[in-house]
C-alpha cells in the first residue's frame, strides 16, 4: 500500500520525468530486495536477536521524519524549476 502512494507522489512531483522516477524506484526496490536478506544472517549472528531487532527498530525510528519532511518541503520539490517541463 505504501508503495502505491510513493508512486503516485513521484508521478505528481516529476510529471515529465515520471517514467524515469518510477524506473529508479523499481531498481532501488529490487536492489534492496536482493541485498537486505543477505545482510540479515550476519546481523543476527553478530548482534543476536535482541540487538539485531533493536537495530532494525532504530532504523525505523530514524525514518519516521521522512513523511513529515515530504509534507513540509514537498511543494518546493514539486514546484522546483529543475523538474518543470519546458513547453
TrEMBL record:
Superkingdom of origin organism: Eukaryota
Protein's organism: Claviceps africana
GO molecular function (one): transmembrane transporter activity
One cellular component term from this protein's GO annotations in UniProt: membrane
Keywords assigned: Membrane, Transmembrane, Transmembrane helix
Keyword Membrane assigned: yes
Localization in the cell: Membrane
Transmembrane listed as a keyword: yes
Principal location: membrane
Record family assignment: Belongs to the major facilitator superfamily.
Membrane-crossing residue ranges in chain numbering: 49-70
InterPro entries associated with the record: MFS_trans_sf (IPR036259)
Protein name, as recorded: Uncharacterized protein
Membrane association type: Multi-pass membrane protein
